[in-house]
Amino acid sequence: MKQFMDENFLLETATAQDLFHNHAAKMPIIDYHCHLIPEMVAKDHKFKSITELWLGGDHYKWRAMRTNGVDERFCTGKDTSDWEKFEKWAETVPYTFRNPLYHWTHLELKTGFGITKLLSPKTAREIFEECNDKLQNDPEYTARGFMRRYHVETVCTTDDPVDDLHNHIEYAKTKGEKDARMIPAWRPDKAMNIEKPDFADYVNQLGEVAGVTITTFKDMVDALQKRHDFFHEMGSRLSDHGIEEFYDEPYTDAEIENIFAKAMKKEALTELETRQYKHCFLKICAEMDHASNWTQQYHYGAIRDNNTLMYNQLGPDTGFDSIGEFNTAKAMSHFLNELNMEKKLTRTILYTLNPCANEVIATMLGNFQDGSCPGKIQFGSGWWFNDQLDGMERQMNALSVLGLLSRFVGMLTDSRSFLSYPRHEYFRRLLCNLLGNDVEKGLIPADMESLYRMVEDISYNNAKNYFKF
């Protein structure tokens, strides 16, 4: 019987162990997509407890706790203590066998705090106090300290165009030699989501920040371009779009102006009008990214805010989203082809939330590779519900069979937590295990020099060369 989470966790062969321990493990981290709060990095936030660090904003854990019969006040309530919330999480953990939360929980305790005990009601108080002691008394247990601990070289936050990026500016002035570089990434979803009730208010805010009086769609594009230029000056080289699906409905400039005018008057739009607008909006953003030599990311396939009752109570990103089914392959192809025909298709990463589309994405990549750089069009790593053992393996297997795994830019945390960096280790262990098993089975040669280079490239080098931060 193999010991749980020993040094060779997930590494089933001697080859895999060599690849991981001597090569993948030593590489720094480029976390090119996350949801960390820049202010916490800038101010080197000191966490008051493991509950704030671990459970604050973590809708993965909240979903599991709710499923385990835990009352909402122990997840998101403001009238419960940090200990009460932690205790309820500890009660839930033993019920998470085979859920990635079980692995992540213990990998984070081990790498973050040196704790190898299993979390349960019996060990909860001891672990709670040991973690809190380090958070309160060890100067390295801060936001920046955790990033140093995990050898984070670069982190890209997710930022709205209206953000003045003052936290990025302040951090750049105060960061130490061993601190990670923090780069903003452009996320203009609020300007895209024309069907939302607060769209007009957001557009007015955008105009104020950009110094543009917005009365037409063209005005809004001008305002976005000014903010895009500002982000570029602040080091941004990466955009991101959270979309349900791709859009390819034909439109004219006049139609878009009319749709925009209706939305600004808070009039109802038809589904066709919404889709026409989003097609136009995403195309214009893609053209901006191409002109600035940025990389664009598309995260698609989520059905968000399914539970209206809880959305009204808690707002978005609180654990009520799920995988969607969208017939979007043709629209994706048409959208990418439209940009390619105009020679405005920049480096692109495609993420699908539905693993049923893995092969769709993996085959789409090859249609638009142009030899300008290795892996110009990328299949993004297993995302959200798929950033776990099965999901990451399925994504890498699809990419291996239908593309070039060797040119993959690797893992990201996509997380709000400073304790999520072990997800990079988890990914690297799985990568090394896949390759190690293939070597042991005689499916690929034991060309160790090439394999060493491959795992180091996927872990770090490919991202460094691809993004050109």
CA-atom Rg in angstroms? 23 Å
SS-based class:
alpha/beta
Number of strand elements: 9
Helix share of residues? 40-55%
Average pLDDT, all residues: 97
Across the major sheet, the strand order is 4-5-8-9
General shape: globular
Q: How far apart are the termini?
A: 45 Å
Strand fraction band?
A: 5-15%
Topology as a string of helices (H) and strands (E): HEHHHHHHHEHEHHHEHHEEHEHEHEHHH
- SS field, number of helical segments: 20
Describe the largest sheet.
4 strands, parallel
Task: Give a description of the structure.
With 469 residues, the protein is an alpha/beta fold. The chain contains 20 helices and 9 strands. It has helices at residues 14-22, 38-42, 50-55, 59-67, 82-92, 100-113, 124-137, 143-149, 166-174, 189-192, 199-210, 217-233, 253-264, 271-291, 308-314, 329-341, 358-365, 389-402, 422-440, 448-467, and strands spanning 29-31, 152-159, 181-186, 238-243, 295-300, 302-303, 322-323, 347-352, 377-379. Helix 9 links the parallel strand 2 (152-159) and strand 3 (181-186). Helix 17 packs parallel to helix 18 and helix 18 (389-402) crosses helix 19 (422-440). The longest helix has 21 residues, at 271-291.
